[in-house]
């Protein structure tokens, strides 16, 4: 599937209009071209919500790529929530704006919920009674990712505990847009309807709350669960020493900067390892359901991953492998040739010297952490399951979980540069395993 012309044009402009990065010899022109093609294909699938059309078609493409490289592919069924929005908006006085429903969604009913709009601070404090109110939760500024984070969950829980009938959460962050929040994928987190508001839209509603005005929230749609799938591509050479490489593919929106680099790295390493790791068995795992607090990763770890005692090395390719950095200027936002520094490399303690050497000069990744000190996301579950030799990348770039995380957030050259370092790290790890 080719990218639509507009998306392809945006991607090429986004990659080519900036100064070129120097690429190590292990990421030559041919591999860089392939990385760019893989990124374009991933972006072209559009919305990646688990079990949706984009996620399913993306998974089918990735599985076919592994089969073409000689892997035997096994799918694993996963049940995930979904919500098809009919109406999600709030009105107060003359102000009205569209919101984002927070899954697992609790609806309002067709008549909506009406009550006083009461501002709630980040500690859960409010100046007026919340009994029967719609709480307007004003989060502190951050690059948010999950509703399970204490600074998000605390004020929402406090509002409902004090009688609020619904909560509207202003996701204050670096873009001024709605930041979608990961959530529990098995049951609703909150007792009433919760929706997210863009900071850019919040001012008139804060004014309404200050005046004690009433507001009406409508949150309606169709919900349930639907099938999705993980898969693993294996090359079993009978060595009894597995190289495992995993990455999620799903997310709330297009997920270009969030997921694209990890997908491209995963594909590159699969093709490379199929030819260049003859002394190891290979297990390349691709998960859905990431946005539901790693629902798919939990399932794959239990059922299709190689056993810890048989695994020589596990690399997890998480969010923000190499998303673009930006300058914030007056009235505009300008792309930079560099990579967002809010990306983290975690490795098992024996791999720290090699990681420092191989990632030198790569912003953020050049300062790796020991897995004894730090982990996050799916990598935490991998470590907890007993895998001894691991590495993982994760981070939150500027457009993380924002609808505008599109092709403009990617540079194929920056991704290729980062992939080359991961290839060298994998080669080093396998020499010891």
Report on the structure:
- This protein is 30% helix and 27% strand.
- It has 433 residues and is α/β, with parallel strands linked by helices.
- A hairpin with a 2-residue loop joins strand 12 and strand 13.
- Helix 2 crosses helix 6, helix 2 packs across helix 10 and helix 6 packs across helix 10.
- The protein is elongated, with a radius of gyration of 22 Å.
- The two termini are 38 Å apart.
Strand content: 25-35%
Q: Helix/strand/pairing class, anyone?
A: alpha/beta
Number of strands: 16
Order of helices and strands: HHHEEEEEHEEHEEHEHEEEEHEHEH
Low-confidence stretches: 1-29
Radius of gyration, CA atoms, in whole angstroms: 22 Å
Query: Main beta sheet, described?
Result: 14 strands, mixed
Q: Indicate the overall shape.
A: elongated
Distance between the termini: 38 Å
Number of helical segments with 4 or more residues: 10
Percentage of residues assigned to helices = 25-40%
Mean pLDDT over the residues: 92
